[in-house]
What does this fold into?
Amino acid sequence: MLPAEQQNDPVFQRLKQLKYAPIISIHLWFDREFTRRPFVGMLDTHVQWFFNKSAIFDSAETKKGYVSLVISGAHAFTDWDDGRLLVMAMEELKRLFPEARSAVLTRSLVIKEHQATLSPAVGSESLRPAYQSPLRNLLLAGDWTKTGLPATIESACVSGHACAEIISRGQTSFPLGGEVTKTSGGSPEVPRDREGGQPPAVSNPKKGKGIEGEVIHA
It folds into this structure.
């Protein structure tokens, strides 16, 4: 999407060195609910996470018996076809949730995200870009930018808020940023530019209500 004359800029060239990790989501619809646990970490299994979408959403629009399973860092499974992934997921699900053995699966959907998240390989932190780009009025936002946090949804939110702050204050033409600094409260700020200027700091994110979860061994 970049103009041809900008694609060789060192900043954009460094982005090509970043590596990504795949995530596979397996959505399952059963004819009944077999647990009220909203979120479970699964151990001794290939699937790591269980989300009870029916319990999490808890709305009339979400039918009982809708759950999703997640395999993070799914390098070993991206070549598996949907049927093979479904068989594995069902076997592990029934092993950890005995009540699921009597539930009937009515629908399934497998989603493979090959570049789901930034892989924290050695040296990747030095490749993550600041919010300001070499192009005037082009800002970079995403969990892969230099936020001072791991490449998680929190990192993505921090970058989005930071770019919004820069835009709202009309400071999109700041030179390319450098190191991420911290506020007194510990949250990341927009990186300082090479000439010593300081774009606005990121506001501290508001604390939200989390989802209670637990860990189950296979």
Remarks:
- The CA atoms of residues 141 and 159 lie 5 Å apart.
- DSSP finds four helices and six strands in the chain.
- The longest helix spans residues 153-168.
